[in-house]
Amino acid sequence: MRHLLTSSATALALAVTMGTAHAEPEHYNLDTEHSFIQFKISHLGFSWLVGRFNDFEGDFTYDPDEPANSEVDVTVQTRSIDSNHSERDRHLRDDDFLDVSEYPEARFVSTDFERTGEGEYTLNGELTLHGTTRPISIDVSHVGAGEDPWGEYRRGFEGTVTLTRADFGIDYDLGEEAEEVEMYLSVEGIRQD
Amino acid sequence: MALTNTRNGFGLVAILFHWLVAVLAIGLFVSGLWMTGLGYYDPWYNRAPDLHRAFGVVLFILLGLRLVWRLVNPVPRPEPGTHRWERLLAVTVQWGMYLLLFAIIVAGYLLSTVDGRSIDVFGLFQVPSVYRAGDGFEDLAGDVHYWLAMVLAGLVGLHTLGALKHHFIDRNRTLVRIFRPVRRREPRQ
Description:
A: mainly beta; Lipocalin; eight-stranded antiparallel β-barrel; 15% helix; B: mainly alpha; Fumarate Reductase Cytochrome B subunit; elongated
């Protein structure tokens, strides 16, 4: 009897929880103070050159129950490329590379968000870079979420994707080792709803 | 042969200053255009900008010394028959070139140093970075460096045309004076 009661209570609790817990998708704006868009490219096969984009904005929707409903939209100001070397940055902005006066923005818009494991996802979407739009797949891990000490609710992910420069028409010869660029994305959103 | 200027012509020092600055400025102009188009695997890809920066510093020092020399020396009189407008134009162009040279060097220096790096001058000494700037300041500095150099090239063209006009049309000694140092005791004209 006691056992039955407990089970019923559990079932009831579960039913109540499920009834109300079908949460709405959560909307977040990127907190650019805690978000980073970094790249890593081989220097002749001898070492890694690491740089980042300093200026971008974006938002995402995260649906804890139906990850597939999640969406991301991020726009990067290409002029903000920063490789910690002013002359090189100027070169990266000119038409040998990003051609930022012609293509001032790069944009990623998600098409699909698939759960692949516990806190692991594949984020598919269209990346527009250097005037070329191509589908890319970003491997994403959920890092954490919760209330911050100042009353906001935050959620963060990190992701990696390898881009082939020539796919986007950026084919200045830096050697075979440097045909691909590894992107590392660490983003944190502040919940808006 | 005089080292210093007289009212009749330039001394050897002023003449050397003129031609050193001319050769350096033209060399920097040409090397700047050439080196920014070099491929990554070109042997000059790093070497040329290193030399360009170092010679830029040399030109800055040379210009400073030349300016001091100019201020403590008499300025030769214009050749007889020079129109007032010609003189005014010539002097404006000359000071314009000084101003542009300094501005171009400062812009180039900033382009190379706003990230905190110094400029190495032939391994002899370093010119430190004095101004650090965030995103994109090097673009402004680079654009100013480029476009002022183009304006300067125009002024150099005008300066050269003027000199050739004096020589071939006016047939006076204006051009000759910048090649031949004035004699110490020249008969008064």
